[in-house]
């Protein structure tokens, strides 16, 4: 037995004991979170995000006791780990699993909430932080830091709300909350990157225009890159048909191209979040239909599983990192100042969220008066509530901005902003997240909404059909009526009209080249047997 010990030591010497212990702890926590989440599936006050966060806090507390309150770190939560390895599978799966019909049917309102609303929240939080935080006594932050705070706290985390809403019972509400959540994260990160790219040492009236131009450039180019890579994957799958030899290659190529789109965007200093999200949408629309049936099932479950593990891992890391003693000590702020700053930031989050949700919903209801597309007040409240929680994006961006003393920020004030962001994330996720399920259930139960058949959609489809076929009568005199009717439909129902013409364009030009629904792969062996 003694002779076996040296060889055993030699074979494992390349692995650090601390690394093995850290990985064992995290895998144990992940497994525990899955089991507890299953047992508490029907619980009104708990969800998987809160469970993972609390497990991380408990594990961090145990490590603190073991190390005599010297450190609670097992693995360091860094923005590189988050943005390069954990966030991409989550965002890609969101785009890959999205209900495209509902998403693009409500695309206008999603963009209003996700882009315009986030910009409004960004401006209010930045201005409010500039005035109130200085009034509290934090005077060492620069204008760039306050703009960064606005972008950091504009990033929402609507996971808790989405776990409560039913996609089949409330398709409009679910689509808005889900779509706005993804677009909001992308917009917040694009705003943050835009702030980082500008020089505020000599700011003037053109700085705001430069910020807007940078934002629009990053948003449009990142989206275009994601669509291009998605179409490339569809074209490769359609023409090579890798599944005739190995379905593993289909899955591998889809994963690699999706991750490649994210890395190319980061290499070009674009928004990888937007790129991989739209890449996921395009892949689900074209590429997924070009692979074998077994690969379709495998890809859906594989992407969902990776997303679930990454999301759980993030919340565990956030919980453990919240007990970083070094960061709390370096802030050197009293408990009163820390609570004051955190309360101020969270109050700005509440005000910034309400400042765009209710006005945009009101304007939308005034423009579109159809009953089945109106956003009722209870739905507006749920949309507002869904955006109050803050998550890992807030923590990662906060570390990116304040981990090192940049510009005029002192080390103490930078550490204070990080700890205040952690407090906002913990409070919003645990407190607000725990009451999300009973609150939304109470709101929805008091105002039951009967399931109704949307006959107006079929009437519009019938009108489109008659217009497309020139109608049953007066075909020679109907051209002018067709044009006027289509213009009226475009003005009255832009989303549905654009969706209709997109489907015509897609069927005629895109699907023959990139495949998609209804595509039957050409297999040489089968063709040879037929002939």
General description of the model:
It is built from 23 helices and no strands. By secondary structure, it is mainly α. The chain has a domain of 367 residues: Na+/H+ antiporter like fold (Up-down Bundle), CATH 1.20.1530. Helix 2 packs antiparallel against helix 3 and helix 17 runs antiparallel to helix 18. The longest helix has 36 residues. The termini are far apart. The N terminus and C terminus are likely disordered. Its main location: membrane. This is Sodium/hydrogen exchanger 1. Keywords: Ion transport, Membrane, Potassium, Potassium transport, Sodium, Sodium transport, Transmembrane, Transmembrane helix, Transport. One of its GO terms (cellular component) is plasma membrane.
């Amino acid at each position: 037995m003694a002779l076996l010990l040296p060889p055993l030591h030699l074979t494992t010497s390349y692995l650090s004991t601390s690394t093995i212990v850290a990985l064992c702890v995290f895998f144990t926590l992940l497994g525990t979170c899955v089991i507890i989440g299953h047992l508490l599936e029907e619980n009104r006050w708990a969800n998987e995000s809160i469970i993972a966060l609390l497990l991380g806090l408990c594990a961090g507390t145990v490590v603190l006791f073991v190390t005599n309150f010297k450190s609670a770190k097992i693995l360091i939560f860094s923005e590189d780990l988050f943005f390069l390895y954990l966030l991409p599978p989550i965002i890609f799966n969101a785009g890959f699993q999205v209900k495209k019909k509902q998403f693009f049917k409500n695309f206008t309102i999603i963009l209003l909430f996700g882009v315009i609303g986030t910009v409004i929240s960004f401006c209010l939080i930045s201005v409010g932080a500039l005035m109130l935080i200085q009034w509290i006594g934090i005077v060492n932050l620069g204008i760039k830091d306050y703009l960064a705070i606005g972008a950091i706290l504009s990033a929402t985390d609507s996971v808790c709300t989405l776990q409560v809403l039913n996609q089949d019972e409330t398709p409009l509400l679910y689509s808005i909350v889900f779509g706005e959540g993804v677009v909001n994260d992308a917009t917040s990160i694009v705003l943050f990157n835009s702030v980082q790219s500008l020089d505020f040492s000599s700011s003037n009236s053109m700085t705001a225009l430069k910020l807007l131009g940078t934002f629009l450039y990053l948003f449009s180019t990142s989206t275009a890159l994601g669509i291009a890579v998605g179409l490339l994957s569809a074209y490769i799958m359609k023409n090579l048909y890798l599944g005739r030899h190995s379905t593993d290659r289909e899955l591998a190529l889809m994963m690699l191209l999706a991750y490649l789109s994210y890395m190319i965007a980061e290499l070009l200093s674009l928004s990888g979040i937007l790129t991989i999200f739209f890449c996921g949408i395009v892949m689900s629309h074209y590429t997924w239909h070009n692979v074998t049936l077994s690969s379709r099932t495998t890809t859906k479950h594989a992407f969902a599983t990776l997303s679930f593990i990454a999301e759980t891992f993030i919340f565990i890391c956030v919980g453990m990192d919240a007990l970083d003693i070094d960061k709390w000590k370096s802030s050197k702020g009293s408990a009163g100042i820390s609570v004051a700053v955190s309360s101020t930031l969270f109050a700005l989050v509440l005000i910034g969220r309400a400042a765009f949700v209710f006005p945009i919903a009101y304007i939308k209801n005034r423009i579109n008066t159809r009953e089945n597309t109106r956003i009722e007040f209870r739905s507006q409240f749920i949309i507002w509530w869904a955006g109050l929680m803050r998550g890992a994006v807030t923590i990662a961006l906060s570390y990116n901005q304040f981990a090192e003393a940049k510009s005029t920020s002192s080390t103490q004030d930078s550490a204070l902003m990080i700890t205040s962001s952690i407090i906002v994330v913990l409070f919003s996720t645990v407190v607000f997240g725990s009451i999300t399920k009973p609150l939304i259930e109470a709101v929805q139960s008091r105002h039951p909404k009967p399931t109704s058949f949307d006959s107006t959609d079929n009437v519009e489809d019938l009108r489109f059909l008659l217009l497309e076929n020139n109608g049953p009568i007066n075909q020679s005199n109907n051209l002018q009526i067709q044009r006027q009717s289509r213009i009226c439909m475009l003005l009255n129902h832009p989303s549905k009209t654009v969706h209709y013409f997109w489907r015509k364009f897609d069927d005629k030009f895109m699907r023959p080249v990139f495949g998609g629904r209804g595509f039957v792969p050409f297999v040489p062996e089968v063709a040879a047997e037929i002939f």
